[in-house]
Amino acid sequence: MTPRPLINNTPGKLIAVEGLDGSGKSTQVYLIQRWLELSGYKVFFTEWNSSLIVREATRKGKRRNLLTPTTFSLIHCTDFADRYERNILPMLKAGFIVLADRYKFTALARDTVRGCPQEWVEQLYSFAFQPDITFYFSLPLRTALDRILGGRPALKYHEAGMDLGLSPDPVASFKIFQGRIHKAYELLAKKHGFTRISSDRPVEAIQEEVRGVLRDRIDLAHYKAVARWIVR
To answer: Is the per-residue pLDDT at 82 higher than 80?
Structure first.
């Protein structure tokens, strides 16, 4: 049975960004972070696969090609759980706007494409709140592929989906892998009510639309940082 998503019941707001590699999501969330910080709001940023405790084990497993689809999923969930309990949840309880560059939906897309049952993956991440807003930066698959393949000298083994045996050629494997992830994201977008943002446009136009959504759906004034003056 698919677990019911947990609603955020903390004073803070959780904003996630999702999308294919090359969709511009990381650029947009960085711009959101800087805008909020410079406007004086309480904001915290976290990104996928960045736990200091888990990161080295993940690198070693990838470097030696030791990760099966199941262990790949479990080690990323461990990374997520560590960041969630140490950073995300405490900051939400402290009344911050938390920006997540990829959230549990990244696992739901990638791990299911790697062959893990979707209900199993959803159960793994059932401890985590549903974001208040999930921005899904969508663009044609061909555009996303061209951006990545045109900007990187070489594809990493797991990035290209080489562990799935899709093709002996990294580029061909990457295209197939990303195509499957794209389909998975489209299904997730409908199921979880993502806020779709067309990212096949200038960066400035996308950012203005994102800021407009935040202004409309969040009482930003509630998250203004309070200056603390020290009187001596």
So the answer is: yes
The answer to whether 2 and 181 have CB atoms below 8 angstroms apart is: no
DSSP-assigned states of every residue in 153-183: SS--TTTTTGGGTS-SSHHHHHHHHHHHHHH
Using one digit for the tens of pLDDT, what is the confidence trace for 153-180? 788 888 899 989 999 999 999 999 999 9
Which of 132, 111, 137 has the alpha carbon at shortest distance from 30? 137
Q: Which domain holds residue 177?
A: 10-223
Is residue 106 in some structural domain? Answer: yes
Output the pTM of the full model: 0.91
Q: pLDDT value at position 232?
A: 44
State phi, psi for 67 to the nearest 5 degrees: -90, 120
- Phi, psi (degrees; rounded to nearest 5) at 129: -60, 150
DSSP state for residue 220 in the 8-state scheme = G
Q: Please count the structural domains in the chain.
A: 1
If we measure between CA atoms, which residue out of 1, 7, 4 comes closest to residue 129? Answer: 7
* Residue 163's CATH number: 3.40.50.300
Q: Which residue has the tokens 């897309």?
A: 109
